[in-house]
Amino acid sequence: MKRQLLILFTIALSSLAFALEEGKIEVTVKCVISGDEIDKEEYTKYKDGKVYFCCGGCKSDFEEDASKFTSAANYQLVATGQYVQGSCPLTARKNKADKELAVDGLSVTFCCNNCLKKAKKSTDKVSMLFSDATFDKSFGKPNSDAIKTNVSKKKSAKK
Length: 159
Description:
alpha+beta; 2 domains; two-stranded antiparallel ribbon; two-stranded antiparallel sheet; about 50% helix; about 20% strand; elongated
């Protein structure tokens, strides 16, 4: 599992680096405030990454009260490759590659059909899947302790 995550992350990071270098991003990364195109020079530190904005005004709004925009900011951290999914966002159990849903162009995987169905039914998938509660238990920095711990817990539970 660790090797698969490393391979997937390497591919994603390579694609993102190429996309950013070429001025193209496969998953459309939007300002978390306005939804407009981002300016790579307008960002602020958030969690252990950077959140990008279209302008200084949106950056100021976010810095003033980030709690209003956490789901969008968490989504952007994943969309830009700064964080990766380590487990099902609804249960924190091991994902299955065939239980996949595209959320605004970003692939999210689930542990079972029940979680996949719940996500599909949601009218606000970003809020459901990238809220702080789901994000903190299911997403982490690539090769982070959070992902390693999650993976090792799953392995030890099977023994």
